[in-house]
Amino acid sequence: DIENELYERFPFNFDEKFKAKSFKVTQNEILKSKRLDSNFYKPLYKKLDIFFSKNNSIKLNALCENPYRGIQPVYDENGEYKVINSKNIKKTEIDYINSKKINKFFYNLDENKKFRIKKNDILMYSTGAYVGQTNIFVKDDKFIASNHVTLIRPKTNKINPFYLSLFLNSKFGLCQTDKYASGSAQREIYPESVLRFDVLVPLNKDEKLDNLWIKNISERMNKFF
After folding, report:
1. What is the pLDDT of residues 82-139, one digit of tens each?
2. Residue 148: is its pLDDT beyond 90?
3. Which residues pair with 83 in a beta bridge?
4. In 168-185, which positions are buried (b, 16+ CB within 10 angstroms) versus exposed (e)?
5. Helices 161-168 and 171-180 sit at what angle, rounded to 10 degrees?
6. Residues near 177 by Cβ (< 8 Å), separated by ≥ 6?
7. 75 exposure class (CB count in 10 Å sphere: 0-12, 13-18, 19+)
């Protein structure tokens, strides 16, 4: 399993979240973070922050263009093009087959240009039950992102899109989603919060980017998709 290889590469005990029955938060921490929800201060997240600082991690804002939400689509059953909404973003894949349709006119509107999905874009489930669930878009077809999807466009000279997709959809990414998500009845993650995510970067014995390992991971993922 490819995801398990990530955990073997970066061993971290995620089970710690079940051990803390209660915890304290200082006034300074609250003032600094400007968050009043106790979930934000879970001991697990503090330990994860320390883990990121001790390992080679980079903030997502250095690895991608500014992420943003998609647009509310005008659906058309007879349309030629399609939409990816949150329901299409599954745990292990993007459900292209059951995506709803839009017409060519809506797709080609100038104001909708930024919402058109490109190959190797990363799409995140941003509102609802599976907030944070993430997958990579591998098609060359014409799709747009809906308003409950965050579109993340990696800088390919900085990060491999398949690796970034794997990382964000792993426990490392989902824990950060849970930390930064807002709301109770309807959880959601905002694009500006996604930019604050830490991304672990694997290094080889020479303390350089382990391109061989990343290439192996991405090639295997590409075959799966």
Report:
1. 999 999 999 999 999 999 999 999 999 999 999 999 999 999 999 998 999 999 999 9
2. yes
3. 144
4. bbbebbbbbbbbbbeeee
5. 60
6. 131, 132, 189
7. middle
Three-state DSSP state, 211 = helix
Quote the tokens at residue 129. 């039950």
CA distance 49 to 43: 10
Q: Please state which of the ranges 6-20, 74-88, 152-166 shows the lowest mean pLDDT.
A: 6-20
User: Side chain identity at 59, as an amino acid letter?
Assistant: K
Place of tokens 């997502």: 60
Rg (CA), the chain: 18
Q: What does 151-188 look like in DSSP terms, one character per residue? A: EE-B-TTTS-HHHHHHHHTSHHHHHHHHHH-B-SSS-B
Instruction: Supply the pTM of this predicted model.
Output: 0.91
Beta-strand ranges (E) seen in the chain are: 57-59, 68-69, 81-84, 101-102, 122-125, 134-136, 143-145, 149-152, 198-200
Count of C-beta atoms within a 10 Å radius of residue 68: 17
How many residues does this entry show for the chain?
Answer: 225
Closest to 145 in 3D by CA, of 169, 168, 174, 112: 112
Q: 143 with 82: CB under 8 angstroms?
A: yes
What count of other Cβ atoms lies within 10 Å of the Cβ of residue 133?
A: 21
List residues bridging with 193 in a β-sheet: none
Pairing mode, if any, of strands 143-145 and 81-84? parallel
